[in-house]
Amino acid sequence: MNGHAVETVEHLLQNGVSATKVHELEIHDLDASKLTVTLTKSPGKVPELDSKEVWSMKSNTDHMVRVTWTDDVGWHAPTIEPYGQLTMSPIASCLHYATQCFEGMKVYRGFDGKLRLFRPDKNCNRLVMSSARVALPTFDPKELEKLLKAFMKVDGPKWLPKSRPGTFLYIRPAIIGNGEQIGVTAPSEVLMFIVAVGWPDLSSGTPPGAAPKPPGLKLLASKSDVRAWPGGFGYAKVGANYGPAFVSHMEGRKMGYDQILWLLGSEYQVTEAGASNFFVVWKTKKGKLQLVTAPLDAKVILEGVTRGSVLELARERLVSGSKYLTSEVKDLEVVERNFTMLEIEEAAKEGRLVESFLSGTAYFITPVSAINFRDQEIDIPMGDGTGGYYAATLKKWLKDIMYGNVQHEWGVIIDEE
Length: 417
Prior knowledge:
Blueprint: H1 3-14, H2 19-24, E1 36-37, H3 52-56, E2 63-70, E3 74-75, E4 79-82, H4 93-97, E5 100-102, E6 105-109, E7 115-118, H5 120-133, H6 141-159, E8 167-177, E9 189-198, E10 217-221, H7 246-254, E11 259-264, E12 269-273, E13 276-283, E14 289-293, H8 305-317, E15 333-336, H9 341-349, E16 353-360, E17 364-373, E18 376-379, H10 389-402, E19 411-413
Helix pairs in contact: 5-6
């Protein structure tokens, strides 16, 4: 019995199943080798690039992955089947107690003709962590990665044809407690599913028919609302972290701002921007150039896959003597620490603020042009006018990996044969 099966046994014992009964059961871990595939008889039409269908973010691919978990069996055999609606009881656990978690990732059609996932092991491991945080069963993340590859082997060639290099799909793995349990307890039945949808380039594009927007995102610093707090669960990718934030987000949109910059405490500690990680480049009072972002140790922010990749590349390449440095992109110190809007405000007033950007799956790498803090707008330098030089450089490095312009271990190739 492996570690994941042991955790499932513990889950059963915690839910009142006797030790004798548990030992009589054969508890199954997630096993991609048991996958069966049923192809659709009603294939959909692939939307045109950057079309209204893509911007609606509702254009699903033909198929989906489904895997059931029950407390008497563990993980059942996974299936790839035609995309369709879910049905569940009105007293399903996820509808009442937010026993739900998810991931967001993309699959890319490279300029070399190959399909790639970007660091899928990171997303799979994070989904295991998020699942455990809301009392859902865990699993072997390597088996989930196998399911993702199998899914994209089925739908990738059609929905990301080789004739469209440089394009991507958004993939959403999710786990929900769909057992009939109105009581306050861990669900006895769970559904894992994976869908893929067309997704626009939020980092630079605009919807068809919309007036072009000035480059960069405008952020509204939160005033009274708090997204996450030390000792909470802001580090997990669970639905309960997102719904309550929509009120502030929509109010900010009405005021002309793209995202909320979430602050914490009386010192206005900077955490995240919307559902993205936040970075600032500035010079210290002693003239030292730094790339700064919030730390993970207090478990307030999400450990973003793009965030981690930015930090790793910056520490590797933005160093003295590096071949990647230019007249605009100089070496700097990479810092993960708590910092405040008061520091950003001061740096702006003193001319030490260099640039700012967001990172995440949805917005990728997107520059920030302004932050409204305490009803005063702070203008953020934008380098060449379209964005900061560091944001543009990091974005290019990551795109080169994602689309196969350079071969890198982070770009995981999907076998389409």
